[in-house]
Amino acid sequence: MRDFVDAARRFVAEAPVAVSLEEERELVAVKAALYARALTLFEGALLLIQNDRQLDFRIQSRSVIEAAMYLIALDRNPAFVTRMKDDDFKSRQSRAALHLGAKKFTGTEDVRQQLEEFVAQGLQGAKAIQLGSLLEGSDFDRLYRSYRDISGDAAHVSMTALNRHYVENPVDGSATLIINPELDEIDFLVTLTELGITMTIATLLIMKIKQKTEVWDTFQALLHRYRALARDTRGSPEIQSSREDGPSEL
Questions:
Q1: Which of 13, 63, 99, 103 has its CA at a distance of 20 to 30 angstroms from the CA of residue 163?
Q2: What is the tens place of the pLDDT at every residue in 141-180?
Q3: Cα 135 from Cα 100, distance rounded (Å)
Q4: Residue range 185-230, pLDDT digits in tens
């Protein structure tokens, strides 16, 4: 993981990407920002596991998967950027209305007026994105299943998630509260391999934008290392790519 972060940082520090059309510029910008978000969260996950925060590491990996899911959706359908804009507009409308409807509004009158004018625009047909539909028909639809597993098991408050923190003793009826619980071996290895395949997919997709990179061979070596680790842990299926095809093939 540390080697991957080092290679990814060298990758994003390379020469700028030239774009010709405004539509292409926007698409490249959104994809690049998604990759920057995924890499930021990935580095955060690495810091957590280095400090043996296993559950936090699992929770953080969910956000990396989410960013990659959006990147995959954009790669499959460039027009998806419009849906992202609509989703963002709907969310901002909802938040603005929530603040206006508070029992005690803490903003100034100018802020209140701005919010009222914004809410008055209405949704204008904007709809929220359903995450479950992002990867339908994709070769990587398994990532959504992993995303949901982590959500129910660790990221959200649920009875399943609380079972990691509250463990009853069936013998005497006592219970133990566990702070910073460890993952069992299967959950730990699955989280590692899913996080690895997620960042690999995201990196190969962003490479398609640049078309040429000085760290292609480095990423190929890292991919081979990931495959070996995944096989050892009975983890993820391999990504099909080759040095001859280059980063435009996934």
A1: 63
A2: 999 999 999 999 999 999 999 999 999 999 998 999 999 9
A3: 36
A4: 999 999 999 999 999 999 999 998 887 888 989 999 998 988 888 7
What is the SS3 assignment for 168?
strand
Helix (H) or strand (E) holding 177: strand 175-177
- 26 burial (CB, 10 Å; 0-12 / 13-18 / 19+) is middle
Q: What is the distance between the alpha carbons of residues 179 and 162, in angstroms, rounded to a whole number?
A: 11
* 186 token code pair: 């299967």
Angle (nearest 5°) at CA 49 between 216 and 180: 155
Nearest CA-CA partner of 12 in 35, 41, 42, 46: 35
